[in-house]
Amino acid sequence: MRLVYYFPEYHQYVEQTGAVLKVVPADTNTFQINFEAFLDILNPNVQAVLINTPNNPSGIVYSKDTINKLCSILKDKQEEYGHDIFLISDEPYREIVFGGEDSVYISKYYDNCLSCYSFSKSLSLPGERIGYIAVNPKAADADIIAVICGQISRGIGHNCPASSIQLAVAEILELTSDLSVYETNGELLYNTLVKLGFQVVKPGGTFYIFPKALEEDAAAFCLKARKYNLILVPSDNFGVSGYFRMAYCIDTEKVIRSLEALERFVKEEYGQHLL
Ligand SMILES: Cc1ncc(COP(=O)(O)O)c(C=O)c1O
Prior knowledge:
Elements lengths: L1 E2 L5 H8 L6 E2 L10 H7 L6 E5 L11 H18 L4 E5 L22 E6 H4 L8 E5 L6 H14 L7 H9 L8 H16 L12 E2 L8 H9 L6 E2 L9 E4 L4 H19 L5
Parallel strand pairs: 1-2, 3-4, 4-5
Antiparallel strand pairs: 5-6, 7-9, 8-9
Helix pairs in contact: 7-9
Bound molecules: pyridoxal-5'-phosphate (PLP).
Pyridoxal-5'-phosphate binds next to loops.
C-alpha cells in the first residue's frame, strides 16, 4: 500500500515482488495523509505501508501529528490482524526541511520500520545511486531483512555503487551540500504562484512545489508552458490529475528568470495577472 502522491518508480519496485500496490488518495487541501481513505483501504492482506516524507512531488513534510496517528493506526491493525505490518519510509529528502525544522525520524515512532535513504539529494549526487536501508533493530526479523536487502539489490540488477563513491561518501557522512538555496527558491516560487492566483500548498521541504493547474488537463497545461521555456511535470505521472510539479534544484537566478516566464505564460494563455 502506498500513500499518494507518489514517486512513480514505486510501482515497478512493488510489482516485481509479486505484491500489489494500492494507492491511498491524498488530502489535497494539506497533502498530509488522508486517514479516512487510508482506513478504508486497510485490510488483513496489508503487509507493508510505504510513505515518503518530505514528499516528492508535493514538497510537503508530514507533521508529528500525522506520523503519530499513522503509527498508532498501524500498531492497532497489527494487533487486530495478528501479523506484522512494515512501515517503509522513503526519506531521501530528510535533511531538506524548511523553517529551521528537523523532519521526524519515523523509525523512532514505530518498531517495524525500514528507513530508506539516498545521498543523491543531501549531497547533490544524483545518478550515483548510493544510499542505504536502515532496519530498526526492534523490527521483526531485523537481522534477516538486513541481509536480504543486499540480495534484493542484486536481484533487481543494482549490484552496488562503485567502490570509489562508497569510499568518498563514507568520508563526508556528516556533511550536506548548501541546502539553503532550496528554501530561497521555494519561497520565491510559492509567493509568485499565490500572487498569480494558483491554488498551492506551501512546501515544507524538498525542492518541489505542486500547484493546481489552470485547466483540468495538466498535460495540456504543461505542454503550453513549454512555449515559454518552462519545463513542468504534469501530475498524472504521480497518480493524480490536475496538478503539476515544479522542481527548483537550480540557481536562484534561474528561478527569478523563470518567474518572469511564468507571469507571461499565465497572462497570455489564461488572462491571469499578478495580484
Ligand atoms: C521519493 C524518492 N525516492 C527515491 C528516489 C531515488 O533517489 P536516487 O535514485 O537518486 O538515489 C527519489 C529521486 O528522485 C525520490 O524522489
